[in-house]
Specification:
mainly alpha, about 65% helix, single chain, flat, about 120 residues
Length: about 120
């Protein structure tokens, strides 16, 4: 009985870790594309210049090599950061700035209707 419960807890913990890793991967990829757009523009510019320079050395595969390297760098950066956050036990629900991810709203103001001061306090 005890071994069955510990096995079930191990499976649950593994699923939670995988779920956390996948959520972090999705969130970091979206943030890289949306918020990190200037960084992507700088990397694309550097990649174009690097492929022009490498074109004289290896004319056939310079563009493919640079583009593949930049894409691999971005993918590996997202996966490594997601793995580190998951290994440290940081869950995306703990982050205040990720309220859009799990459907929580920040209520900044409440709506006050024109008739409310007259009728809201009637009991």
């Amino acid at each position: 009985m005890v071994s069955a419960q510990s096995s079930n807890q191990g499976k649950t913990y593994s699923l939670l870790m995988i779920k956390s890793f996948l959520i972090w991967t999705f969130t970091l990829a979206v943030c890289l594309l949306v918020v990190g757009f200037p960084l992507v523009v700088v990397m694309a510019t550097a990649g174009c210049l690097l492929s022009i320079v490498l074109q004289s050395v290896m004319p056939v595969s310079a563009v493919l090599l640079v583009a593949g390297g930049l894409i691999m760098f971005n993918v590996m950066a997202v996966l490594i950061v997601a793995g580190v956050l998951t290994a440290k036990g940081v869950h995306p629900k703990e982050m205040k700035w990720l309220s859009w991810l799990h459907g929580e709203e920040d209520k900044v103001q409440t709506t006050v209707y024109a008739a409310c001061p007259l009728t809201c306090e009637l009991k």
